[in-house]
Structures are given as C-alpha cells and as structure tokens.
Amino acid sequence: MEPLLGEARPQAPHPLPTAQCYLTIRAATEALCAPISAEDAALQSMPDASPAKWHLAHCSWFFETFVLGPSIPGYRVFCPAYHHLYNSYYQSVGSPFPRPQRGLLSRPSLEEVVAYRRHVDGCMTDLLATPGTAERSDLLGVVELGLQHEQQHQELLLTDLKHLFFQNPLRPCYRAEAPGRALAPLTDRAWCEHPGGIARIGHTGPGFCFDNEQPRHRRLLEPFALASHPVTNSEWMAFMADGGYERPELWLSDGFEAVRAGGWRAPLYWEREASGWQVFTFAGMQPVGLDDPVCHVSLFEADAFARWSRARLPGEEEWEILAAGAAVEGNFVERGLLRPSPSGAGGKLPRQLFGDVWEWTRSPYGPYPGYRPPEGALGEYNGKFMANQWVLRGGSCATPQGHLRASYRNFFPSSARWQFTGVRIARDLR
Amino acid sequence: MEPLLGEARPQAPHPLPTAQCYLTIRAATEALCAPISAEDAALQSMPDASPAKWHLAHCSWFFETFVLGPSIPGYRVFCPAYHHLYNSYYQSVGSPFPRPQRGLLSRPSLEEVVAYRRHVDGCMTDLLATPGTAERSDLLGVVELGLQHEQQHQELLLTDLKHLFFQNPLRPCYRAEAPGRALAPLTDRAWCEHPGGIARIGHTGPGFCFDNEQPRHRRLLEPFALASHPVTNSEWMAFMADGGYERPELWLSDGFEAVRAGGWRAPLYWEREASGWQVFTFAGMQPVGLDDPVCHVSLFEADAFARWSRARLPGEEEWEILAAGAAVEGNFVERGLLRPSPSGAGGKLPRQLFGDVWEWTRSPYGPYPGYRPPEGALGEYNGKFMANQWVLRGGSCATPQGHLRASYRNFFPSSARWQFTGVRIARDLR
Amino acid sequence: MEPLLGEARPQAPHPLPTAQCYLTIRAATEALCAPISAEDAALQSMPDASPAKWHLAHCSWFFETFVLGPSIPGYRVFCPAYHHLYNSYYQSVGSPFPRPQRGLLSRPSLEEVVAYRRHVDGCMTDLLATPGTAERSDLLGVVELGLQHEQQHQELLLTDLKHLFFQNPLRPCYRAEAPGRALAPLTDRAWCEHPGGIARIGHTGPGFCFDNEQPRHRRLLEPFALASHPVTNSEWMAFMADGGYERPELWLSDGFEAVRAGGWRAPLYWEREASGWQVFTFAGMQPVGLDDPVCHVSLFEADAFARWSRARLPGEEEWEILAAGAAVEGNFVERGLLRPSPSGAGGKLPRQLFGDVWEWTRSPYGPYPGYRPPEGALGEYNGKFMANQWVLRGGSCATPQGHLRASYRNFFPSSARWQFTGVRIARDLR
Amino acid sequence: MEPLLGEARPQAPHPLPTAQCYLTIRAATEALCAPISAEDAALQSMPDASPAKWHLAHCSWFFETFVLGPSIPGYRVFCPAYHHLYNSYYQSVGSPFPRPQRGLLSRPSLEEVVAYRRHVDGCMTDLLATPGTAERSDLLGVVELGLQHEQQHQELLLTDLKHLFFQNPLRPCYRAEAPGRALAPLTDRAWCEHPGGIARIGHTGPGFCFDNEQPRHRRLLEPFALASHPVTNSEWMAFMADGGYERPELWLSDGFEAVRAGGWRAPLYWEREASGWQVFTFAGMQPVGLDDPVCHVSLFEADAFARWSRARLPGEEEWEILAAGAAVEGNFVERGLLRPSPSGAGGKLPRQLFGDVWEWTRSPYGPYPGYRPPEGALGEYNGKFMANQWVLRGGSCATPQGHLRASYRNFFPSSARWQFTGVRIARDLR
After folding, report:
1. How many other C-beta atoms can be found within 10 angstroms of the C-beta atom of residue C332?
2. Residue among D249, D255, D370 whose CB faces A428 most closely
3. Which of A385, C91, D51, D234 is deepest in the core (most CB within 10 A)?
4. What is the ipTM of this complex?
5. pLDDT tens figures, C92-116
6. Where are any strands of DSSP class E within A159-299?
7. CA terminus-to-terminus distance, chain D
8. Which residues of A touch D254 (CB under 8 A)?
9. Sign of the torsion formed by the C-alpha atoms of D208, D213, D217 and D218
10. Residues ≥6 apart with Cβ < 8 Å to C386
C-alpha cells in the first residue's frame, strides 16, 4: 500500500436536512433580494446570466420537480407553465425555456414568484414533517441536493446582478459598503511546499458532496509549492504596467484573441479615472484596493499572469491536498462584504484558500476516474458539462460558507470573468 | 395653371397648445400604462423596440431638452444622467445611450420615471401659464411638436409591449377584450377610381404637421383605383392556401429571403392551433377574425399579396389624394379595441382609410421636393431617416385620433411586422 | 396635351443581333480575362462579388438556358451539373447554387469553362445562321438580352476582380496604366439649368432596352439645375478636410452607422501614405488624381457630400431629361483606361454624363408606372430587385459604350462601394 | 522506487537530417499536389482550413525564417512580402496574414510558390552540404523540426483539400481508388487489459519529438482495458439506428448543441442515397465500408458513442502505455489508400493503433508536468495552443509513417470533424 498524503480530516456524522435547515437556506436566498426591486429582478444582462427572479423561481422548480412531484401522491404543481419556464437544462424532464430569453419574462411577476416559493416551502415543510420522511434517505438526499443547488444559485444571483448593474451608466448601488473590511498590511508572498507522492483526492466522509467530487481516487503528485495567498491588485497592476495585456508571448493563443476581441486592458469592472483605477462593487464604484486579491479575471488572464510570474497555475489535486487539512473559514457571503479582502499578516499558511475569490486551476473540468453520473434526470446536474471548462476551487466572498469544502469543484469556461474569480500561483519544486 | 385635384378641406385656425391640452396628452400616455407592472415596463424584446418605461422617460426628456432648458433661465434638469439615458438619437445634443441596451436599465425605477414626468409636467404647466408664453409661437411650436412626439410614442409603447408579451409563453393579457367590436358583414371589394392629373400633396392649412409632410407640392398622377377597404384575413388565408408564402415568383428577391430567414408562414402573431388560426392580441390569443383587416404584415408580404392579386400597392400620393377629402374617423386608440375591426357595409367609400391598420404604400420614404429639415437638433427628427424605409398611411387602432391627418407619413423598413401594418391594394386604370 | 420636354433623339432602326455581333461581344468578355490567371479567375472576395470564372460560365449558361434549350429540338446541355452551378438567381428554372459559395468551385476549371463557352458559341452561331432564325424576333430578342446581359457581366467581372486584388497585400497589377489619360485643366463647376414641366422618361425608339426602362411615361419636374461635371477628388478632399466623415449632421442615420461600422474615412481603395493619398487601380497603387471624378463612394457618402455642398443628388428623371439629347460618348471600357479621368475644359455642358463613373441619384429603384416584368423566367431579370436599392445613371470607365443609353438604369444598395460609383450634384431653381 | 510499466522500446541512435532526407520529405509534399490544379490549390473552404498553395509556401517560409535567415550571413529572402503572407501564427517574428483570408491570394501563383520552394531547397541543400553544418546540432535540430512540420502540413493539405472538394457539388475526384484495400473479415471486439500502476509516458530516447511530448514523466494508472480495434462503420450505424444523434442523454451539453446547430445526423462526408449510405473519399463518393473504422467524427460524437456503448474514451496515458511497445506500422499515407481500412483478423492485439484514424482521447490537451516551451519564436509552436483542445493519438491514413510514434500528441477542438478522426473505446477494470 502506498503512502497516502493529505488525508481529509475526520468528519462528524452527516446530519440529514431538516425543515429548519431548509427554511434557513431558502430565507438566505430571499435575503439577498431584499435590496432589489422587482425591476432589478427581471432583467438579464447577457445569455450567460439570468434574472434574479428566474433564480428564485428555478430553485423552487427544482424542489417541485425532483422532490414534491415524485414524493407526494397526487401533487398538483403550482402552475403547469412553470415546468417549461423554469427548467434550466434538464432535457429528460421536458423542454427548457431558452436561456437567452429568460430576461423577456415580465410575467410571472416577482410577487407571483414569491408566492410560488411560499407554496413550495409549505409543501416541503409538510413533507419534511411527515412521519417516515426522516427514514427516506434517498428522498432526503434529493432535498439536500436541492438545498446545495439553491446555495449555488445564491452566488449566481449575486454575480448576475452585479453584471446587470454594471451595464447601467448609473452604476447602481446594491447596498452600502459594510464596515470592517480587514485592511491589515500584507506580507510578502511565501511558498507552501509539498513533497509530492501518491495522494487521494475527492470527497470522503459522511457529509454531502456533488457527484463530480467522486469517486475519491489516487493521484500522483510531483513536489510542488503553492503561493501563500492569492495574487493581489497591486501585483496585477505590475503585470499591467509591464505590458501584460499587450504581449502575445505571455498568452495562450485563444487568450490573446480574447484580449483583442474583448478589448481587455484590466480585470472586468475596473475603470480608469483621473484619481486612479476604480472598481465596480456592490457598493458602486470604489478605489481598487491594492492589497485585495485580484478578482473578475478569466482563466486566460490567470494563466498569462502566472507565465509572467515565471510560475504556473496549480492543479486541482495540488490545491485540494493542501486545503484538505484546513478549516473552511474566510471571507464568505455571510460576512457581508461581498468583495475580496486582503489576507492580512499572521496566521497559518496558506491563507485565504477558502472564500474571497474562486481560484482558477490548470485543470480542465472532467470526470474523475470511475465517475458515473446518478441515474435519471439528476444525472444531468454536472456530468454533461465536463468539457471545455476549467476547475476553480475555494469559494468566494459571494459563496455561503456552509456550501464549501476542500473537494468542491466549481467550473467555468476560459473566458468567463463575471464570477468572483482570482488567481493563486504555484510552482514545481526541484 | 393646371387643374388641381384633391385639394384638402378648409381647416379651422390652428389652436396653440394649452396647458390643458398638454396635460390631456400626457395623461393619455400614462393611462396606457395602467394595466402593466413595473416589470412589464422595464423589458425590451428586441433592438427595434423599447421598454415602456423608456418611452415614458424619453418623452419627458424631449420637453426638458427642447422646451424647458432653452426657455427657462437657470433651469435645472431633474437628473443630469437622464440626458444620456433618454436621448433617442439626437447626436447634436449629446451621445445617445445605445438603443439595444435600453432593456438593461432597471434603474431609474418606474416610480422615479413617473416622478420625472411629474417634475416636467409641473415645469411645463408653469411655463405655459407664464404671461407672454402664448405669444412665443416658436416656443409653442416646439411644445406642439413635443406633444405630437408623445402621441407617436403612445403607439410605439403599445406595439413594443405587444411584441414583448408575445415572447412570453404565458401569452399575457394586457386587458380583456372590450365589447362592441363591429362585426357587421363585409361587402365585396369595390374600386374607388381617380382620373389622374396634376394634384398637390403635402400638408396645407394652419394645423400642425411634421416637417416631412412639406413642402406641399405638385404630383402627376395617372388614372388609378384604390380598393374600397383593406385586405381582410380571409383574403389573406386564400393567399396562404394558394402557396403565397412558398412561391418565389410572387415576391421581391429580398422579400423571399426574409420569408426563408424568418420562417414566415403567416402574419406575425398568428398561430395555428387545432381549432384554426389564432392571433395574439392585447386580450391574449383570440380566433382570427375573417373579416378583420389583415395586420402585422411586412411591406414584403403586402407587395407579394398585391402581386398575387394582380394588383399593386398604392403610391402615397394616390392614397393622399383620395384621403384628402375624408373625415379622420375610424377605429383609433380611443375606441379601446386595440385591434383592427371589420369595415362593415354601407357608408362612403373608400372605407377605413383612417384607423384600423397602417397601409403600406409602394413609396420609398424620401424627402418631398424642396424639403429642408428645421435648423438645429430638431432637424434630426425626421430627415435623417429618409432612406431604405417605406411610407405607410392612415393610422391604426393604436394611433390617437387627433394625431392623424391625410398628409401624415409614417415609415418603417420593408421587413418590419410588429406595427399594426396592413394592406390596401390599388390598380392602374386603362 | 401638355408640352413634352426632353424628347429623346430619333434613333436608327434597331438592328437584330447577328452572329458577328454575338461573337464580338463574347470575345470582349474573354479579352478582359487575358491578363489574369486561372487562379485569379477562381477566387471570390465577398458574397456580393463573383469569381471571374463564374461570370464566364454564367453568361454561357444564360444562352444555353434561355436560347439554345428552348430553340433547338433535342439540344443536349454541355454538362447537366452546370444548370445548378451557374444559375444566378432564377428560381423558376431551378435551384441556384448559393452565391456566397461561388468561390469554392475549383472545378470546373477555367479551361473547362472556356470549352463550355466554345460549345455554346458553336451552337449559337449555328442557330443564328439557320435559315428562318432572322425572322424569329422573339428568339432574337432573347439573344439580344443575352448579349446585353453579357456586357453587364463584363463590368462586374472587372469590379469584382478589382475588389479581389485589393484584398491581396501584394496589390496585384491587372495591367500597366494605359498612356493617354486626359489631364486637361478642369474648369469650375457650372450649373446646367432646366425649366421643369411635364416630360417623358423611359426608353423610346427601336433599340434594345431592359424592361425596367419601360414603360415610357410622364413625369412632372420642377425647375432644377445639374452640375456641369461630377464631383472631383479635390472637392472630396475638401469634404474630408472639413470633417466630412466625422460630422453626423451631414449624414443619413444609416449612413453614419455605415461610416462607423466600416471605418470609412475616405472612398474605397484610398490609402494614406507619406506621399499623400494613393488609390488602388487596375495598374496598382497610384496617386489620387485631383481632377479625376471621385469614385468608389456609396450612396450614403454621395448624399452626405451633397448635403455638405448645400445641394442634393439629382432625381433619375432630371438626369435622364438632360442626358436624353446628348451623345453616348465618354470614357468607357473601350478606351482602356479603366479609371475615371478629368473632364477637361471646353465642350458642351454637362460633361461626362456618360462614362467615367456611375452617378448616384436620389431615386430609390422601383418600377415605372405600369411596369410589368416579362412573362416566364426572364421576368426575374430585373423586377424582383426593385426594393432597397438606388438608381445610378450614365455608365462608367468599365462599361461597354454600346451598352449604355440615356434611359439606362443601374441600381445598387446604399452601402455599395466596389462599383465605379461617383457623384454629380443638383439643386432646385427658385 | 516504484515499478515502471510500459517502458518504450530501446531506440537506435538518432540520425541527423541530411540533404537527402530533406529532399525526400519536400518531394513528398509536392507529390501530394500532383493530382491537383493551380485552381484547386488556391481555394479555402473555411477559416480552419488553408489552401494547398498556402501550405506549400508556408513550409518554405518556415525554413527560410528559422533556418536560412539565422544561419546564412547576408541571406536575402526570396520575396520580402512572403514574410507576412506565409507566417502562420508566429507573433514574435512579425504580423501573420489573417488566416480566414488565405483563400483570397490568387497571387503569388502556384508557379511562383513552386519557384519559392526551389529557391529554398537550393539554399537548404547548400547549407546542409556546407562543411561544419553536421556539427551544428542546434541548427540541425531546427532543420529536423522544419521537416516534421512539413509532414504535419502534408496531412493538413490533404484534409483541407478533401473539405474543399466536398463543398463542390461535382464531388471532384482527387485520384482513383487504389487497389488493394484490405477487406478481410473483422473479428469481434476484444479487450486489451492493463493492470495499472505507476508508469512513465512522454518521449524517451534519441529520436525526434515535439516539445509537447516532454518531459517524460510518471503517471498513475488504474486497471483498464482498451478495445482491440477502432469502432467500425457498422457499429456506428447501430448507434445511429438507436437514435444516437437524437438522444440528449448520450451527449455532453455542448455536444448536443453542436449536433443541433450543425444538423449532424451521421459522420461528416456521409450522404444518404437510395442505395444506402455513401461517403465522400479522395476517389469521390463511395459506399460506406461496414468494417472500416468510422472516420470524420468529432470528440463530441466519439464521447457520445462511448457513453452509448457503456464505455468511455481512453486517456492519452492509457493509449500511450499500450502503444509504447508496438511497431509503428499500419495504413499510413505511403500506402496510398487515403482512407481507413478494416483491421482484418489475426495478428497481435490491439490492432490499428497506428494509422487509419486518429483516435480521440478523453484527455484535454495540456502541458506535461514541468513542460517548458523552447526559447524564442519556436516556443510558439505548440505551447500556446494548450487549452480547449483534445488529444488524439496514433496517426491516420493521411499521416506519413515516419512522422508517428507512440508518444505523439495531436490535438483538435471538440467539434472538429474534417480530420481523419475516429474512436477507440476503453473501460475501467474492476
């Protein structure tokens, strides 16, 4: 038996989702919509994004379609038309309404969508309170999936809204900047080394995970080191000042084409003003924080920065091995900053693995060896997207803390910039 | 001096716009929005259309920019940002916000836009009540233009909203069908003849007209006849049944390409169901009325139908000559049907020249001989669009009655279908 | 009866096309291809253009399809596949090969296409020599149409080739500049006046004309004046220096959008070099001739120039009335310059109505009153294009002289620049 | 030290390229062009493909730019303009002519391009014969790279030409079918098992390899099996008959979208005729061979077929481990079939690893651990394309045999179909 490095910490037995848990997560979604109007909730800024209202409804559709319908004899859907409107991409349960047209639906109104949520919540809490439900682990498994799914949409709702607001020359403010952004001085980059060897990655233990985190399997690692913290805005400015966006030799070929086609000169949401670089945040335009992790950069930009740094992006297995022993703590959505924050000094290295910014890896998103999607429609959840995307790790300032874990795999295409995506560099040892 | 045919009827002296008149027209715009929500008002279905909220704001911007600003010393605009957001296409007063992005503005809210209207209304009524204003005919001329402009947007607001609602699989209902749609039996098509000769067209008399209706000038007409009423849905079905949409020999080359590219098989808003053809109306899907004027067809379709009928479309001068002596009465927006209605039998011929449907002519939209746009920014109102569009005449069931006259020239590109556009055929005599 | 102005000159009886005439025109087409290689003849620079080889074959297809097939019992086509490949747009005789793909046909080779031409020439000369043919005026009419058609393609072959060569950074030379370009000093612009009245335009007399030049009909003209010669390059430079391409108030709305989208800063084929403006010609890059008529401008540019000049474009009827009495002489393709030339001084005014550059008019291309396309497939020749294009008059330095006449109507869309298109301004009198 | 499986066979010392070797490979390129005309060589069927003439010139440009220029003092290029025209994508040596416009270059003529080749050949053979050159291993390394590069373009020249010919309704024949296509009966699929473990992949030994095959490095394999031969057309027909192209559950999400957008119903080049499925080959349309390996399928199709088969695609490391011990023999371009051929029965398993069809793997194309591109412009050769493409292995019936080896990595995007791409399935053991 080969030695296994980076084993995950022992976990507590996995609690099944309760009505309380259900209601807490559902309420968190709606709390995110408190600052916005029905008009804000109806618009769609681009085909990749969805209106907030659509997110609200789709998450309810998920419970209705995969929990209530199959579990409650004679269940009557809230509105038959919603089955088409709020199906995201599940071909096996019907024909999804075209994604680019989600922003053309002024009806159902936000009020009706909220009523839909109330209806689903009532049925769900009844179901969860029904004697015998607690024993139906298959059913509870889908409930848990539905809640994790809702948490994913909480983040998307925020990133899609930010993108929408940025299209508006008024630069709307979602809410005022929360006080208490850590502005502790940043220490220099250190390198966190790992000797390599055969290690296991993928989810283990009793807690929830998505299918794409399994099966847990062995990987062979060569000795490597991970940067102690994500790349900062001041480092990014040095890259820009050194002609980072103008030098083709730093870029993948498709990446440089994306630079050219998109007119990229800085991360998304940056704007140059007389007073210096400003960045669009949920509190409107703000000065770029020099020690903040750089954010809203694409895989292509992350890769070019790493090349410029004579480093590389980490592999997802490298990231996971180093993260496996760390507590899932950091600047998550619950902190209310909704923007990445400097790491400060002190504490255990590496810092900020969790929260602040999703970290691009050099790993194309694909199935783990032996991966099999679940049977049935829920098999469409992850598996069919395993091509032409890249793995990101660690969660962001818009991710619910309880949603994350070391084995969590997020994924986006190489040009995507509107998520809270940042960079941590790595290098080979020897 | 040659004989002049078709002289326009003598007109009453032209009343200058009063505060009352102003408030009446402004209120009419808002009344059209009574049935819709803020969400309905914010969305944009295609680049050619605008959100209802944008129409509401833009009309106020017009008064603020062209009346209040120039007339009131020290006038402070309601919000400086609106100058960019609500400028439609006036390059000489600034940089218009891009039209395809009008649907990305959740802010200003509908409520703020209504407050903007109240602000402008207050200033306008003050101005109109100011001693001396009544003598400033140049100023009152711009006020009148602003009101006519607002009436144009009343119709566009409706047609854009209808197009938006049609994108929604729920097929929303704007309001229930008003009772009283005339369903009198239709008589056969008759021909209204005209002997030709030199005639004058273009606006005359003291009333308001747009610059594009002038100068009044001479035209040489050959003997012709105009159909007694617009083409009906049952006639259109005969065209369809005869392969109208499949026979290239009936079409202009670009027209047949539009048929192919757009998958046209029937007028816009028609849907084939088991029970027969249905049409989307402001009251949702309704059976196609056989005796109703066909509506929502493009110039290309109108032209193909005319060719199939061994007829042609009328020239705008022919239409105007026959309409010049007729009363401007018919199925206008005030009737509340918001849908074309059968002509019924009896009465003077030709029927339905005014109201029901705009009638495509064979006249490309261009300047009248000697045409000069006004000096200044308002010169951009009409003149710069005089290419690659076609003249329509007569107004529709969505046009305010007081807005129309025989010399009125509407214009749209040859593929446009979302206006209330129909067909009246003509033919040469001899 | 009203006075008729501008009557066309009496014409000689119309000679029927003979084998000699046929062979002369066919040979002229091939002579244009003498300087080019099979490779040059195979390529297509844009969907609007065709490879030279395609032009060569299509003109033969025309004779085969509309003359040989219907006239010779048991005629066997040269190659059945050509019926699809070389059909331009005649839906009623089959399915045309898609225009944008004409440049994907390396086979048939140029050699095979030439063989095809020889085959058709043999059959055609046999047919024309057959006793009785000379009496078949319907047949000879189609032969004549085929020859006129071939002449149209002679010009297109040249303009398409010029456009292709310009895509090549080598800036290939079609042939060296012919000596003898008139460089006589230019006199100032004079105005050629016309008192207006009722006049007749459209073809008259025994000679050939296209269907779109008929029926001859009456037009009412107001007094006007036409410039004595086309706008020159030095005048165009003054327009450019005065911000002509940057000032939206000079442009139609669609025109200014075309300027922006196409990055237009000067006429097509102009390039700014250290030594001044150069222009691409059939003899490669050459200095822009200050007194040459400006060429390769769109309708939009012509219209903006006219507005800048406080003038307007002529109506096609105005042009024709003034041209009706003039001899069809000028810088045509036979002169071999293949580029517009200064008018020089002296001689009768207006100068250069014929040859040099096609002159944009303000007339949208449409049917004359009472126009009827011919029965059958040849009815597709002109009629189906009568929308969204503009009439040009007078022919160019790439037009065969014998092809032109005062009533000739050419037509192109408002953004087209690759033809030899120029500008003559006009103005209202009074 | 862990056991190493699948070690590559010992190789002979690596011979340096001689003038003879150079001339042989250059001549092979030109031999491929023997059946085609200058017209065939000039056309480009799509932006991803290049004209044959461009391939011919670009390969010479490579030697001129990277060998002759740097090595010969005072070397004068054949034509300065070629430096721009025939640069494919090397940003560091200049500005490449845009790829989509390569088909707009009728000049330089094929004849001139051949003269360019002769010029480069003369200089190259002089250089290789110069005393001292044999000792300059750096120089000879670039010569070798240039020859391998030329071999890559030999295959691309064929696949691009095939694609061009297929756009032509005449379905041109490149050359008649060579006799001797093996049509031996096919045996059933067997599985070639491997026990897994730590193995090394990547090039080893003295022979040439591309930078992307290095560094040789360790991989951890789980037990797996590879199919004994590639998927055949009859198997593919079973997939099609089972609704393979209509069932979204078999496809990656982007793959099913590609099916829909491209109207895919069968492999590229297949056409359904009354007599059954035909396929376009270099000898024109031919019946689909049931036992032939399926060809011209995309990664998406390969993946869907594997899923339908309850199998998966192999990883590139799995493929390489099994191939490492096999002789590089098979149906390569030298055999002259230019089309995949049945494996027949008998012989060592797995069959047809080399030749016939490139085999899609499930491995996204990326850098090997520790990969570094070469310094200088040649660092652009491979590294900058390591994103959003997929690895293919084994060579095809259009690949030169001497060009291939077990560690060879080809790569194309997931929708590409115009290469000779096929499928071998794999599965996990246990």
Report:
1. 23
2. D370
3. D51
4. 0.94
5. 999 999 999 999 999 999 999 999 9
6. 191-194, 197-201, 217-221, 224-227, 270-273, 276-281, 284-287
7. 26
8. 385, 387-388
9. negative
10. B252, C212, C365, C366, C367
